[in-house]
RNA sequence: GGCCCCGUCGUCUAGCGGUUAGGAUCCAUGGUUUUCAUCCAUGUUACAGGAGUUCAAUUCUCCUCGGGGUCACCA
């Protein structure tokens, strides 16, 4: 069983999507289920509706899952297990105040040492614990020995007991902390492999330690993906709004820091050849320009009629025309901005006003020509225009722009619409 | 600062002891194109530094330097 565990606290980020994609691909390869666990423990940070939005995005990207679990619904299990740990003396109540701990952290920082809890409350006499009415947290005893995490990408990584620390598993308000809830839930869901971002690396020994303390023998496999370096932060929603295709975004996210056998592919193809062994150990760079290139290639491969829908039509000719415009546009949004002016009222520069009037008149009176050359020759002859007055003006009239693709190509796909374009 | 990762053309990278160190992109030049762009061809540019191991290090080890991650009663 694999899992994707997003928190509904903001827009889904490309890094989150990459993690989801990898989990999905590997779940298919291993023929295991993928579940989605919404990490909604932090009531303050949860954003209404984000869970639904994340689920909708997963569907849009073709990521199939068998179950959705809301973490907040299993808090009673978390409490029960914390209690068990206390009974077995594997965890203890800690009465240290947040303010005092904060002070300790600052001291550690000033003396340039790594902060670690001093276990002050670990061996409190029972009567002191019982009689104490102050709010408390529950901490798990730090491990006696170093914990080795065997990561599929990074290899064996060792964490000393102090690095794992006697960390908090239940906060004062009786809610489980992230690491505790996460470790327990992975255990309860019988998760066999966790693929997540590198920033969770230091949580891994903590989560292993929690399960070991609970007597859970099964080893969970871990893969920590190198982080994505970005110049700006990109949300999936934004990329979609900018006119990037889900197929292209997936393609790109699977490609970076990887060794795909080909440049353009869909997620189904990736299931055939994807291997965690090929993932780079170094951080990967997210380049919007590279994404644009890949998006362009996906648009080029798209069915013409389907493509035309993205720019507001339902006609293969417009789809083909859009492909011609791909030489200067990379997203559906940009294509739309190129196609729309063609059918809009044209604004002709002052110097060409007369020529434009003459040409408009000629075009309106012209018969239908299958070939551009015939059309061109006719217009040229009938209007008496030549040079700039001909080529520039014709381009303005037909495309609504000063520059653009070869006008013969434009004509090829637009010839049936001349009446609508030149008004 | 502690711990943990990473360090190849300007950029993104291939390479897993012996290579003319490959590709993509950028840049430059030439060509195609009655426009801008595209496209094609050609060209410049890299193993962070220093020790070691070895017949042989880009590749293995250590140190320095540089970059990143993490050190919460957040997830």
Describe the structure.
- The structure is a single chain.
- With 423 residues, the chain is mainly alpha-helical.
- The chain folds into four domains: 2-65 and 227-288, 3-Layer(aba) Sandwich (Rossmann fold); 72-225, HUPs (Rossmann fold); 302-342; 345-421, Arc Repressor Mutant, subunit A (Orthogonal Bundle), CATH 1.10.10.350.
- The protein contains 20 helices and twelve strands.
- The protein has helices at residues 14-30, 50-60, 75-87, 98-110, 126-131, 161-164, 178-188, 204-213, 236-241, 246-255, 267-273, 288-301, 304-310, 316-325, 332-343, 353-365, 372-383, 387-399, 407-414, 418-421; strands spanning 2-4, 34-38, 67-70, 91-94, 137-140, 147-151, 155-159, 168-170, 193-197, 221-225, 228-229, 284-285.
- It has a three-stranded parallel sheet, with helices on one face.
- Helix 13 (304-310) crosses helix 14 (316-325) and helix 14 (316-325) runs antiparallel to helix 19.
- The termini are far apart.
- The mean pLDDT is 91.
- The structure holds one RNA strand of 75 nucleotides.
């Amino acid at each position: 069983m694999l899992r994707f565990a997003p928190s509904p606290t903001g827009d889904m980020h490309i890094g989150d999507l990459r993690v989801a994609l990898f989990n999905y691909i590997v779940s298919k390869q291993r023929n295991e289920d993928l579940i989605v666990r919404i990490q909604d423990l932090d009531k303050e940070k949860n954003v209404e509706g984000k869970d639904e939005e994340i689920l909708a995005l997963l569907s849009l990207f073709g990521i199939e899952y068998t179950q959705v679990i809301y973490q907040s619904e299993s808090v009673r299990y978390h409490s029960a297990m914390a209690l068990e740990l206390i009974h077995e003396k594997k965890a203890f109540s800690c009465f240290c105040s947040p303010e005092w701990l904060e002070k300790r952290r600052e001291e550690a920082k000033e003396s340039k040492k790594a902060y670690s809890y001093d276990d002050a409350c670990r061996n409190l006499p029972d009567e002191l614990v019982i009689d104490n009415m102050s709010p408390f947290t529950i901490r798990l005893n730090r491990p006696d020995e170093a914990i080795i995490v065997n990561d599929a990408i990074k290899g064996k990584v060792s964490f000393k007991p102090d690095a794992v620390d006697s960390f908090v598993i239940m906060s004062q308000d009786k809610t489980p902390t992230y690491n505790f809830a996460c470790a327990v839930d992975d255990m309860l869901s019988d998760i066999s492999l966790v693929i997540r971002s590198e920033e969770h690396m230091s949580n891994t020994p903590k989560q292993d330690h929690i399960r070991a303390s609970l007597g859970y023998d099964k080893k969970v496999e871990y893969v920590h993906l190198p982080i994505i370096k970005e110049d700006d932060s990109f949300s999936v929603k934004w990329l979609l709004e900018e006119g990037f295709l889900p197929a292209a975004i997936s393609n790109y996210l699977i490609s970076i820091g990887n060794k795909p056998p080909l440049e353009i592919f869909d997620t189904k193809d990736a299931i055939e050849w994807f291997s965690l062994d090929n993932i780079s150990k170094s951080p990967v760079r997210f380049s919007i320009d590279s994404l644009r290139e890949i998006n362009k290639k996906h648009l080029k491969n798209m069915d013409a009629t389907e493509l035309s829908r993205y720019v507001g039509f339902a006609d293969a000719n417009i789809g083909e025309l859009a492909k011609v415009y791909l030489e200067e546009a990379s997203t559906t949004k940009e294509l739309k901005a190129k196609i729309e002016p063609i059918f809009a009222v044209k604004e002709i520069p002052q110097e060409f006003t007369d020529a434009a009037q003459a040409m408009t008149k000629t075009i309106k009176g012209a018969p239908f020509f299958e070939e551009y050359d015939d059309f061109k020759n006719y217009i040229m002859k009938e209007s008496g225009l030549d040079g700039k007055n001909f080529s520039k003006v014709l381009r303005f009239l037909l495309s609504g722009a000063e520059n653009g693709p070869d006008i013969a190509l434009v004509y090829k796909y637009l010839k049936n619409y001349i009446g609508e374009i030149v008004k």
